[in-house]
Amino acid sequence: MSSFADSAATALQLIISLDPGLLAIAARSLAVSSCACAIACALGLVLGAWLGVARFAGRAALLTLLNTFLAVPSVVVGLVVYLLLSRGGPLGFLGWLFSFKAMVMAQAVLVLPVVAALTRQAVADAESLHGEQLRSLGARPLMRSLLLAWDERYALLTVVIASFGRAISEVGAVMIVGGNIDGFTRVMTTAIALETSKGDLPLALGLGLILLGVVLLLNVLISLVRRWRERSEHGEGRRASMPDGTSDVTPRVLEVSS
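Structure (tokenized):
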């Protein structure tokens, strides 16, 4: 128990004193996950919104494949990206293996199915409620997907925040493609694994506390977004109230389309 207390005290001291090594690892981890999340969300939001509206042959098979990718272990993603970027792989000419770019690529591949699947579900639910009215106005699938995605923007913002949490907590893929090189590709999760195996518990615990703080902040942001959405919908409902006491039942998405 005293060993744990000593390690925790030393870890807090490292955080309070803004230890350069600790901050460098944390900053690199945040940079990798931010870049990966930006790439994955740019692709996943568009793909998910389109899949939520479009109807075509093979859609069910594509959705099954997308949902399967949700359960793929991160080490498998890391292995695939490693083979792609290795010297004999199809992308070996890029020279990205064991670099910042390789870790961004691995995390983006890992997060992309999550963003696409959650976006598809949110837009599909909105389509079931408002899609018929949008179709009656002549909106094509692409336009409907964009309008419905905008209508569900608060839910999609939650998806973006959750995807960042998934990226920053990942360890297997970045360990494989990054190599955990000190000063170059060492991030919080890989550093925690390494320092724990070395017995440097204060540094590992300090990084763990920072990682927990980031995850806590993300959950707080998700909670704030949900409250913001509830207040926004409540305010729109009050503004839509008619003078005679009845309510205007025109969906919010139609207000966007107008």
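The domain at 22-236+249-257 is CATH 1.10.3720.10 (MetI-like fold). The radius of gyration is 22 Å.
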